[in-house]
Amino acid sequence: MIQIAFLNAFNNFKKGKKSKKIKNMDFREQHVRRSSELIGNNVIVQNIINNHLAKKNNHL
């Protein structure tokens, strides 16, 4: 399940979409952990893409 969520986050990031869950973020206690996990996932996706782009640029 984590891999599917990661792929969805990755695909949304590539398309420049923001997650609906983040847009409609609910700050009640039970939701804070989940939304911070989503934000963490987006940071991970950004780091992977940045590393990938850096590798591509080095080959040029």
Automatic annotation (TrEMBL):
Domain of life assignment: Bacteria
Protein name stated in the entry: Uncharacterized protein
